[in-house]
Amino acid sequence: MATKTISIDLEAYERLRAARRTPNESFSQVIMRAHWRNESATAAALLDALAELPTVSADVLERLDEAQRADAPPADQWRPGPASTPRSSST
């Protein structure tokens, strides 16, 4: 039987070791016993997952809209706080 050497982190090693049914069960046997998900992500699965989420109330949406309307960039992008007046250059 051909083999392949791999590196795994210590947490993965401990999980494999703990999953053995007997002390002499090989890691290959543990891995072959594993059940891997064969489901692929689909738009239908996404819609089903979204349907399970709670809806946002109208009050929360209104507060978010209000906060977005109140948000504005500073008058002077180089200085924080209230708008500053331009400096006059004297030469």
TrEMBL record:
Spans annotated as Disordered: 64-91
Keywords: Toxin-antitoxin system
Protein's recorded name: Antitoxin
The organism's taxonomic lineage, starting at the top: Bacteria, Bacillati, Actinomycetota, Actinomycetes, Mycobacteriales
Organism of origin: Mycobacterium palustre
